[in-house]
Amino acid sequence: MNAKKRPEGYFTTGEFAKLCKVKKQTLFHYDHIGILKPEIIGDNGYRYYSIFQFDTYNTISMLKELDMPLSYIRNYLSGRSPSSFLKLLEEHDRLVDDKIAELQWLKTFINGKRRITEEGIRARHGSIRLEHRPREYYIFTKYSGSSEETDEYTAFAGHISHCHQNQIYSPYVTGGLIYAENGYDDKDYRYSHLYTKLDPEDADYGEAGITIIPPRTYAVIYSTEGFSPILSMFTQLKDFARESGYTPGSYFFEDVLLDSVSRPSLESYTVKLGLPVTKAGE
After folding, report:
1. Which segments does the entry list as coiled coil (predicted)?
2. Inter-CA distances, 241 with 35, 104, 128, Å
């Protein structure tokens, strides 16, 4: 081929790279490893690609989006055929379904985190109110350690591991259950159980031992100063419930709304204490 003459209907490497919206170095790499070679190489070493190779590039790009290694792509292209292409498309269809399901779960997780964070931002320290909740789903694990941080951290890690073993990754931070009668004194409080609250979409994991709590009313109070003020809030919640005409329940839920992801220290965490209540006489 005349070195100065451009083959009609072909693209230079730069032009083809623009068409594919990639850098020229990407095409050089694909040429080097043998998955997309230029259709024509001039006497001067210039590379030229045809428009028909654009579909090949799109196939490579699609496979890469599905995290397939370049070695797999090269093997497919070296033995391509209508039947192998059909098989590839069928595999793609399954992989895309998996990707869609993963992205839908991720969107649910993000939306859950947003709701929790927004509530934490709205929270005002010491504010008390009644909250009516729909049916909720929890995983509980019994806590038998002391109130020492080392015991609690070990138990929290074990609880989280239990959830992960059951493929449960909740947007809610692991919380603690405290008995309302003997779970605290004037110096400290102790968890009876650790728990993870689930979104309804995650509630079909029967083997995880999920507990369903029916719709009910809670008296809730917020601490925007971490866990230290919680001890004084147990009695406040009980008194508020009785003054509002409700009978306090037998346990408190301690939920962390804002933690180290968005707060610099334990003392600045936002914690929500909830006490299930029922109308007196019911």
Report:
1. none
2. 70, 39, 10
Q: Quick one: pLDDT band at residue 111, thresholds 50, 70, 90? A: very high
Please determine, for residue 23, whether its predicted confidence score (pLDDT) is greater than 90.
yes
Tell me how far apart the alpha carbons of residues 137 and 158 are, in angstroms, rounded to a whole number: 19
When pLDDT is cut at 50, 70 and 90, the band that residue 2 belongs to is: very low
What is the number of residues in the chain?
Answer: 282
| Three-state secondary structure string covering 47-72 | EEEECCHHHHHHHHHHHHHCCCCHHH
Q: Which residues pair with 128 in a beta bridge?
A: 221
CB distance 63 to 72 below 8 Å: yes
Read off the pLDDT band of 9 (50, 70, 90): confident
For residues 256 and 254, what is the distance between their CA atoms, to the nearest angstrom? Answer: 7
Structure tokens at 129: 């109110």
- Give the 3-state secondary structure of residue 279: strand
CB 139 within 8 A of CB 163: yes
DSSP letter string, 24-46: HHHHHHHHHHTSS--SEE-TT--
CA 148 to CA 169: how far, in whole Å? 26
Buried b vs exposed e over 162-181: b needs ≥16 C-beta within 10 Å?
Answer: bbeebebebbbbbbbbbebe
Beta bridge partners of 189: 184
Whole-number Å distance between alpha carbons of 122 and 211: 29
